[in-house]
Amino acid sequence: MCDDLKALSDFIGKKKYLFGDKPSEMDCAIFGQLAQMLWQSYGNQSEKALKGFPNLCDYCERMKETIWPDWEKCTTRVKSKTNMLLSSDEIERKVYPKDTVILHQIGRGPWAPSLSPFAMKLETYLRMATK
């Protein structure tokens, strides 16, 4: 794992994002994984390993600030309409605009909006694509 993080750290170097000054689809995928390590793996080896690469931690903070300005509202530590879960019945009854994406996932987590790296990647991408 440390070798992989080192390779990623070396690749990003001092760049803001993987391929320059704007986040890309690949940034969403990488962020989805790193966010789990940094914010959901409190105290374990993954978090400790990632914290050994300050530029990757800065990268995660940058992605969070850029794509997830409502991050805190999307965690279970803050009760808001943003993190309210709908039942299957409520989802089926609601009328959605055309081309709406409904992401069915595990409930919001206390330190990150999703407990799933896949859901984190997808939601980050959808947020980036609609900006």
UniProtKB/TrEMBL annotation:
UniProt-recorded name of the protein: Metaxin glutathione S-transferase domain-containing protein
Source organism: Tegillarca granosa
Metaxin glutathione S-transferase domain: residues covered: 3-63
CDD domains: GST_C_Metaxin
InterPro entries according to UniProt: Glutathione-S-Trfase_C_sf, Metaxin_GST, Mito_Protein_Transport_Metaxin
